[in-house]
């Protein structure tokens, strides 16, 4: 049948719906601009020293690490051992492999290819990385060059064959210009969060203040990134200083409590060297409300009252009890070799110090499996003449509280004896600072997917009631028709049956259709560099000698064969 005749037979409402669907699909396809596609990776062959201010995210069975400052050990014959690696850093670890953390770093760490120099992709330190539907979105951080891209973020799509980079726009009156904040990926809610940090970033990678917390520049805004198919929405939530004080380099953690989960913000630096340790900041996602909660316990670390900024954290749950593990810390000094554990809902601190614990500051922590906390990178010493015996990877068993070497461990998590007694209570030892927080905690948490399925199942009885009502009307109609036909004996029984059948046909021709989804239209994305790409610049690091100029890495030719091992499906 010719297309014109076929189209003429489609009802107008359906045709209009098809046009909207096709238009929205086209817009979704063009909304993100492909910047570059990379192939190939190799084992890391350098002599690791320090790795700080980078971002980490898990996609499927692969842990990816981006950006930051990497220093290489130049060897004993060099006057100053540390040398800053130029260019954009991009590493990966496959979490479905068995390895020993004590082995050479090349056994488990792979170096991904650098994005092309002229693209300037995600070449940053600090910031947040959020995983959704196989993609990684980047927000915040300091670009290592003069970039005019405050309205753009970058998106990375790693597959078993290659890595595709795309740009994406920011909406909701949110700018990318923020650094030294705290980020958390709440994947069970399809959301990412970024709190606080500095809202003034020195443009140019060679600024001497680039790695310092600057007084008077701290923010207490919470940026919320909500993900759904084909789009991401940004929201800026400003809190009052009495509920949420401005902090830099704090730890933001997602805890599965309350209707939609809560965020716990702790540690960091408020510009005076103190952070949120005794009084924590708690954010309820469902109501977008900040609360405060006082803690109890001793957090003394060495000569300091608190661990200080530069810590890294993970959270693990056992029923309604939640345990936050905070490792290392004490920025601008040799890293702490201490572990602090916060129990929720008792909000009590415990500290653990062991000789086997390595000193770390500004590391990244990731919970893999149920009981292994990977402590990645970081710095162990401020001495320019040595690397401090630092190791790229340490593995902490959060049940036994021991540093272990074998990865992975598939055993289930059990709370360590140290905190088991505290987890028997359902209330803070000193009571609830905000009574509303108690009622929030008593609500059983369900993931976004669980709430969605429950919402759909609740519609069944409603639809059943509607159908039942229609059936009742139909029966009444049949009875009415019957009596009408009876009063008009000119009508035959055959006429009644035909009338009832017509009612049924009319009812069947109008099914219960869901409301069509609206099309989400996005504007065209602006050019990140309307006046051309700025020249490469060198930059300084507070802890090492001045870095060499940042040369443009050679872009891989298109014919380079893929060397990536086959990735297991997530």
Automatic annotation (TrEMBL):
Q: Which keywords accompany this UniProt record?
A: Membrane, Transmembrane, Transmembrane helix
User: Carries keyword Membrane?
Assistant: yes
Record carries keyword Membrane: yes
Compositional bias, Pro residues, is annotated for: 550-560
* TM segment ranges: 462-484
Q: For the region Disordered, give the residue spans.
A: 524-570
The name this protein goes by in its record: Uncharacterized protein
């Amino acid at each position: 049948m010719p297309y014109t005749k076929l189209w003429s037979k489609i009802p107008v409402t359906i045709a209009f719906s098809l046009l909207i669907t096709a238009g929205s699909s086209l817009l979704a396809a063009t909304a993100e601009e492909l910047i570059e596609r990379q192939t190939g990776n190799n084992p890391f062959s350098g002599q690791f020293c320090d790795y700080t201010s980078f971002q980490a995210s898990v996609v499927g069975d692969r842990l990816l690490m981006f950006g930051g400052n990497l220093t290489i050990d130049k060897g004993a014959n060099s006057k100053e051992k540390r040398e800053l690696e130029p260019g954009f850093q991009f590493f990966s670890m496959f979490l479905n492999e068995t390895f020993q953390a004590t082995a050479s770093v090349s056994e488990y760490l792979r170096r991904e290819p650098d994005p092309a120099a002229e693209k300037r992709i995600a070449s940053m330190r600090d910031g947040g990385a959020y995983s959704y539907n196989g993609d990684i979105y980047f927000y915040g951080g300091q670009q290592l060059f003069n970039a005019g891209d405050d309205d753009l973020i970058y998106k990375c799509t790693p597959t078993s064959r290659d890595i595709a980079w795309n740009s994406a726009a920011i909406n909701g009156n949110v700018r990318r210009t923020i650094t030294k904040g705290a980020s958390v990926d709440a994947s069970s809610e399809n959301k990412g969060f970024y709190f606080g940090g500095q809202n003034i970033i020195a443009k140019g990678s060679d600024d001497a203040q680039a790695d310092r917390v600057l007084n008077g520049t701290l923010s207490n805004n919470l940026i919320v990134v909500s993900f759904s198919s084909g789009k991401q929405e940004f929201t800026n939530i400003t809190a009052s200083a009495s509920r949420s004080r401005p902090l830099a380099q704090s730890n933001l953690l997602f805890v599965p409590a309350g209707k939609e989960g809560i965020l716990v913000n702790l540690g960091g630096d408020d510009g005076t060297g103190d952070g949120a340790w005794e009084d924590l900041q708690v954010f309820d996602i469902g109501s977008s409300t900040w609360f405060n909660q006082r803690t109890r316990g001793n957090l003394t670390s060495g000569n300091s009252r608190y661990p200080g900024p530069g810590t890294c954290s993970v959270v693990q749950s056992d029923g309604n009890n939640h345990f936050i593990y905070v490792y290392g810390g004490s920025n601008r000094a040799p890293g702490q070799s201490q572990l602090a554990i916060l129990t929720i809902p008792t909000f009590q601190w415990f500290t653990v110090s062991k000789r086997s614990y390595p000193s770390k500051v500004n590391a990244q922590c990731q919970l893999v499996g149920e009981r292994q906390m990977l402590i990645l990178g970081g710095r162990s010493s401020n001495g320019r003449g040595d690397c401090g015996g630092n190791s790229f990877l340490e593995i902490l068993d959060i049940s036994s509280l021991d540093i272990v070497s074998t990865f992975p461990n598939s055993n289930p998590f059990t709370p360590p004896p140290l905190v088991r007694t505290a987890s028997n209570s359902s209330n803070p030892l000193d009571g609830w600072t905000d009574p509303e927080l108690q009622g929030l905690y008593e609500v059983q948490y369900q993931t976004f997917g669980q709430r969605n399925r429950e919402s759909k199942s609740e519609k069944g009885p409603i639809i059943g009631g509607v159908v039942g009502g229609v059936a009742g009307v139909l029966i009444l109609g049949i009875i009415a028709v019957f009596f009408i036909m009876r009063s008009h004996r000119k009508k035959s029984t055959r006429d009644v049956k035909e009338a009832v059948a017509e009612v049924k046909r009319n009812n069947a021709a109008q099914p219960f259709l869901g409301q069509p989804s609206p099309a989400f239209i996005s504007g065209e994305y602006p050019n990140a560099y309307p006046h051309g790409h700025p020249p490469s610049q060198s930059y300084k690091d507070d802890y090492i000698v001045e870095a060499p100029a940042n040369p443009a890495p050679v872009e891989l030719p298109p014919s380079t064969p893929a060397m990536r091992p086959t990735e297991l499906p997530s």
